Automatic annotation (TrEMBL):
<dbReference type="InterPro" id="IPR011029">
    <property type="entry name" value="DEATH-like_dom_sf"/>
</dbReference>
<feature type="domain" description="Death">
    <location>
        <begin position="138"/>
        <end position="225"/>
    </location>
</feature>
<protein>
    <recommendedName>
        <fullName>Death domain-containing protein</fullName>
    </recommendedName>
</protein>
<dbReference type="InterPro" id="IPR000488">
    <property type="entry name" value="Death_dom"/>
</dbReference>
Length: 232
């Protein structure tokens, strides 16, 4: 995609977004009505934002959109979720037509310039650039996994072997090391994990944790990765 064309989409997106944000305030009869619509949107977008603390702190539509942009759910490259906002607030004026015109122009451009959208913004791993080289997993993420893995380290090890990030000898060695605590064994497994392919580590880690049915730990780790991203 040429820089000029991308700048055009970005400008049109910002104009469209600003218009929607302004109208959500103007079209509501009172603050209570606005809050009701905002709460409904929070319920819908929670699965994308995946942070209860940040979701609760979003006290207006502008902040909610910023959170969605940080998760690459909304942006000049995808305005589908803006439709949800427009529908929720019933902005049945030129806003709908403007949004549809933008989507139509973007869709036409994608047909002939699909390669311009890969990699990001269409990289499903939104955490790809969160961790700097040489420090694959942020310390607080590593600490959380080590402290909470417990005896599930065995299942974690098996999944690492299946993903070709470890070998049977690694598992056997740890299994026989009765002097090591589960925390120490988990720490060693994470070292093996870090030594593998450096790309999309966050996605890999999420798949591994879900594979061993540790969705609770995956949610905690996701929150910490996002916090780390915000601090960068």
């Amino acid at each position: 995609m040429s820089l000029e064309k991308r700048n055009e989409f970005e400008k049109n997106y910002e104009d469209l977004k600003s218009s929607i944000i302004r109208k959500t305030k103007v079209y509501c009869k009172n603050e209570a009505e606005y809050r009701n619509h905002l709460d409904n949107l929070k319920m819908r977008f929670g699965k994308h934002i995946r942070s209860i603390r940040r979701l609760e702190a979003a006290d207006d539509v502008k902040t909610l959109i910023v959170l969605l942009e940080k998760r690459l759910v909304v942006g000049w490259f995808d305005v589908e979720q803006l439709h949800e906002i427009v529908d929720e607030f019933e902005l049945n004026d030129s806003t709908v037509a403007d949004l549809e015109d933008y989507q139509s122009a973007l869709a036409k451009y994608k047909l002939t310039h699909a390669q311009a959208f890969y990699p990001p913004p269409y990289d499903p791993d939104i955490f790809g650039d969160v961790v700097p080289p040489g420090d694959v997993i942020p310390p607080k993420v590593k600490k959380c996994i080590i402290e909470n893995m417990g005896n599930d380290w065995r299942f974690f090890a098996r999944e690492l072997i299946s993903a070709e990030l470890a070998v049977e000898n690694d598992f056997d060695e740890l299994d026989k090391s009765s002097h090591l605590s589960p925390e120490e064994k988990t720490e060693r497994l994470l070292r093996l994990f870090e030594q593998g392919d450096k790309r999309n580590k966050r996605s890999q880690l999420s798949r591994l944790l879900k594979a061993i049915r540790r969705n609770d730990l995956d949610e905690e780790v996701t929150e910490l990765f996002l916090e780390n991203n915000d601090e960068e």
